[in-house]
UniProtKB/TrEMBL annotation:
A GO molecular-function annotation: signaling receptor activity
Record-linked Pfam families: 7tm_1
Cleavable signal peptide: none
One record GO biological process: G protein-coupled receptor signaling pathway
Protein name (database record): 2-oxoglutarate receptor 1a.2
CDD domains given in the database record: 7tmA_OXGR1
Keywords associated with the record: Cell membrane, G-protein coupled receptor, Membrane, Receptor, Transducer, Transmembrane, Transmembrane helix
Length: 338
């Protein structure tokens, strides 16, 4: 493709800007993506082995967790390409198809993870707030249906991104533009569609579910019971992913595209927003790290299976003590939650 005036350009003629954004891309992004790759590959392959080899029987929550693992591992495939690209100082040598694949998988992991975490929240809401239906929601078919819907919805909402992403030839180098650095006229409306449908709507669903769960958990005595404590930790973990990982990226992406649409934008402000946006991109996929303790919090059987697979005697004795705690008599069916 020929030169593209939308690639990484500011809206000012000022010469006072630094190249801090270029340095962030060259040093910060490879370091962060490299660390995420190492932890993500080791953690998610381990989790997948535990699920496939030891966790029995499978329930709906197990199927959702396995699909979350597969989504994270799919993203791991693209990370070496991105690390290689940024180490070469924004010089892309792998062609437009691989460029689009790497950028597409970033967003697929992001929005797929959001939906899978939303499914976890909905299933947990049913198990705790409506325990009379918990035996139905644990059936494997509901996990299969939920995962199929997540994959279909994510692919549908991201299919237009393949027409937005492009490579750019500039100064005798080819660049693989990130989403917000493509043509802002096309990116601006589509980014809002992704933000509203892919992030804000699931966030409202998750918040509504956990508000009702918190109200339910406050009922009755024995607030310190093991399973109730675990349920509260799960709430904190998922809300942390939504607020710490996903929120900054969506806010800063909007600012990044807006500054590129606005003529006469101050150069330092433009680059400051760009740097903040660069910082937010690896943070957006740090949920891959947060997902690892999620597997333990979502189901007792995972921790037990992990202990059995890796013969962790100390963990085994601790786990037996932990799982020996029962819920109070209030709302007995809550003991059957996923």
């Amino acid at each position: 493709m020929s030169g593209n005036l939308y690639y990484d350009m500011t809206n000012t003629s000022s010469d006072n800007c630094t190249d801090v954004d270029s340095k962030m891309k060259r040093y910060y992004l490879p370091a962060m993506y490299g660390a995420i790759f190492i932890v993500g590959v080791i953690g998610n392959i381990t989790a997948l082995l535990v699920y496939l080899l030891k966790v029995r029987p499978w329930k709906s929550s197990t199927i959702i967790m396995v699909n979350l693992v597969l989504t994270d591992l799919l993203f791991m495939i693209s990370l070496p390409f991105l690390v290689y690209y940024y180490v070469l100082n924004d010089s892309w040598t792998l062609g437009i198809t691989v460029c689009r694949f790497a950028r597409f998988i970033f967003h697929f992991n992001l929005y797929g993870s959001i939906l899978f975490l939303s499914c976890v929240s909905i299933f947990r809401y049913v198990a705790i707030v409506h325990p009379q239906h918990s035996h139905k929601i644990r059936r494997k078919r509901w996990g299969v249906v939920s995962c199929v819907l997540v994959w279909v919805i994510t692919l549908a909402e991201l299919s237009p991104i393949l027409y937005v992403l492009d490579t750019v030839d500039l100064n005798n180098e080819t660049h693989c533009s990130d989403f917000a650095s493509n043509n802002p006229q096309r990116v601006w409306p589509y980014s809002w569609v992704l933000t509203v449908l892919g992030y804000l709507v699931p966030l409202m669903v998750v918040c509504a579910c956990y508000w009702r769960i918190i109200v339910e958990l406050k009922k009755g005595p024995h607030m310190g019971s093991t399973k109730r404590v675990r349920a509260r930790r799960l709430i904190v973990l998922i809300l942390t992913c939504f607020t710490i990982c996903f929120l900054p990226y969506h806010v800063l992406r909007a600012f990044r595209v807006y500054t590129r649409l606005t003529p006469g934008m101050n150069c330092m402000l433009d680059q400051g927003i760009h740097v903040a946006y660069i910082i937010s991109r690896p943070i957006a996929v740090l949920n891959i790290i947060f997902n690892l303790p999620l597997y333990t919090l979502s189901d007792d059987s995972f921790k037990q299976a992990f202990v059995e697979l890796f013969k962790c005697d100390k963990l085994k004795s601790s786990n037996e003590k932990t799982t020996g705690d029962d819920l109070p008599t209030h709302n007995q069916q809550y003991k059957q939650e996923e």
